[in-house]
TrEMBL record:
The gene is nadK. Its cofactor is a divalent metal cation. Its main location: cytoplasm. It comes from Bacteroides pyogenes. This is NAD kinase. GO terms for biological process: NAD+ metabolic process; NADP+ biosynthetic process. The lineage of its organism: Bacteria, Pseudomonadati, Bacteroidota, Bacteroidia, Bacteroidales.
Length: 302
């Protein structure tokens, strides 16, 4: 009887689906996803924009129990179908709801959305038999007096301070817990979580950080001095940034969402008071994903 009760409970699982609405080929696997969930008698709630895209633009006939807008949803699990960019948008909408997110990768790289379309059937078999894990990922919070940035101040990957024009570098006066660290003369500065260490931070020379290391990486973008290197700090420390720029403004990008700021804007960055829960397959090993995505061991001479 306990096994029967588990089956009944799992058959009534409620999923919220958020997907990529820009490239048709990335959404073509959605039909398979809906079919898998329907076979398992799941309750299916879909982002209205994504539902219209796959039904109207792609002409795919799928069933949904309910449509939702923005952050107006609840579920046992949220499914992000797309690439890592779609996953970041999904994480922003989930926010502090505490709902686990499963990332199905129809993009290219996929560190966050790391379930391939071919793995969907097996993955949901594992979910319905409780053979999966949930990883807690830290989030950064940006605090400043700019109302545009305060509308969405949380980043799962990184917060980047960047020069706005193409002419001269900016000076970023940086302090940690009130103690002066350095003035970075560079094109910018990337402050990344361990999750974001394999994203923008990596592309500008930052270190790869294991997801649960409770750290923050500070990496300059094209620094004026070759002596300036990335530094990794504890994630319960607070950063303060003041920027000088010849154009008297600069850009702040929170997980890629950028806003222009005045030179007088003072930025504070710290760990948010909530985390994002990421669903992983029961046999998931971070280093396997790392080797695969980074193509370590591949012969580049071919």
């Amino acid at each position: 009887m306990p096994n029967l009760q588990t089956h009944i409970t799992k058959s009534l699982m409620k999923f919220a689906i958020i997907g990529n609405t820009y490239q048709a080929k990335k959404s073509s696997h959605a039909e398979t996803l809906f079919q898998i969930l329907k076979e398992r008698q799941a309750e299916i709630h879909v982002c209205r924009e994504f539902y219209r895209f796959i039904t109207s633009e792609l002409g795919i006939n799928v069933y949904a129990d309910n449509l939702f807008d923005g952050e107006d949803f609840s579920a046992d699990m949220v499914i992000s179908i797309g690439g890592d960019g779609t996953f970041l948008k999904t994480a922003s909408r989930v926010g502090r709801k505490g709902i686990p997110i499963l990332g199905i990768n129809t993009g290219r790289l996929g560190f966050l959305a790391d379930i391939s379309p071919e793995e969907m059937e097996a993955t949901f078999d594992e979910i319905y038999t409780d053979r999966y894990s949930i990883e807690e990922r830290s989030v950064l919070q940006l605090i400043c007096n700019d109302k545009h940035l305060q509308s969405s101040p949380y980043a799962l990957n990184e917060i980047a301070v960047l020069k706005r024009d193409s002419s001269s570098m900016i000076s970023i006066h940086t302090a940690i817990n009130g103690a002066y660290l350095n003035t970075y003369q560079a094109d910018g500065l990337v402050i990344a979580t361990p999750t974001g260490s394999t994203a923008y931070s990596l592309s500008v020379g930052g270190p790869i950080i294991v997801p649960h290391s409770n750290t923050i990486a500070i990496t300059p973008v094209a620094p004026h001095s070759l002596n300036v290197r990335p530094i990794v700090i504890r994630d319960d420390w607070e950063l303060s940034l003041e920027v000088e720029s010849r154009s008297h403004n600069f850009l702040v990008a929170v997980d890629g969402r950028s806003e222009s700021c005045k030179e007088t804007t003072r930025l504070t960055i710290r760990k948010a008071d909530y985390s994002i829960k990421v669903v992983k397959r029961f046999n998931h090993v971070f280093f396997d994903t790392l080797r695969s995505k980074m193509m370590w061991g591949a012969d580049g001479r071919n």
